[in-house]
Amino acid sequence: SQTIHQWPATLVQPVGSPLSLECTVEGTSNPNLYWYRQAAGRGLQLLFYSVGIGQISSEVPQNLSASRPQDRQFILSSKKLLLSDSGFYLCAWSGVGRNEKLFFGSGTQLSVL
Amino acid sequence: QKEVEQDPGPLSVPEGAIVSLNCTYSNSAFQYFMWYRQYSRKGPELLMYTYSSGNKEDGRFTAQVDKSSKYISLFIRDSQPSDSATYLCAMGYSSASKIIFGSGTRLSIRP
After folding, report:
1. Cystine design at B93: which of A42, A68, B31, B110 (Cβ 3.0–4.6 Å)?
2. Going by C-beta distance under 8 Å and a sequence separation of 6 or more, which residues neighbour residue B107?
3. For residue range B43-88, what is the model confidence (pLDDT) as tens digits?
4. Which helix (H) or strand (E) covers residue B86, if one does?
5. Are strands B11-14 and B105-110 parallel, antiparallel or unpaired?
6. C-alpha angle A101/B61/A3, rounded to 5°?
7. Per-residue pLDDT tens for B10-22?
8. From residue A103, how far is each of A2, A47, B111 by CA, in Å?
9. Cβ count near B23 (within 10 Å)
10. Chain B neighbors of A105, CB-CB under 8 A
11. Residue B30's closest chain A neighbor by CA?
12. How close is the nearest chain A Cα to the Cα of B41, in Å?
């Protein structure tokens, strides 16, 4: 069966510091991978998605970037965090066909102070 | 107008009650519909996936889709305290990058 791992679960970072969140998927090949952000009481905002190694689509221009160095690895990064980057970050994967289901990791609560 | 509207709640019901959660949508292109359950500080967990209008049942959960009214529902029978969570509706067409989520309804089941 497929599993998705995301770490760390909680992160507190000072303003201006770098960020690296990592996500890996097991049990499937060539998945589509996604990074979402969830603000308190709000829906899920798609930040980036990837259909293959090195292929990244950005949905929202911001202080963040994403990379996919391996087939089942997806990384969310920032060179300098802003206060507004605080939030709950979720990695997800899906198959590559139409009408595919989306499966989420356990999430990272990021607090920028 | 948002593409997907969902009452944020909170909704509080006694244990054993039938719960009804609802979403409306405006985009007639949506072809498939999902419900996710999210516990506090955890990732959303896929509960139900439906592709066509009508009902789909899985244990105590029933998902209902009415494409003509652009309205979807999730019913929970014999609700348990462990059902206390935020429920997100989601809908999409073509690739999963097109999935739109509701803002979630917070549900509390009182023992």
Report:
1. B31
2. B9, B10, B11, B12, B13, B19, B21, B83, B84, B85, B86, B87
3. 999 999 998 889 999 999 999 999 999 999 999 999 999 999 999 9
4. strand B85-92
5. parallel
6. 35
7. 999 999 999 999 9
8. 9, 16, 30
9. 24
10. 43
11. A99
12. 7
Residue B106: both structure tokens together: 């917070």
Q: Which of B51, B96, B104 sits opposite A43 (nearest CB)?
A: B104
What DSSP state is assigned to residue B3? S
| Max intra-chain CA distance, chain A | 41
Lookup: tokens for B47: 């509960």
Question: Which sign does the torsion angle of CA B13, A109, A29, B89 carry?
Answer: positive
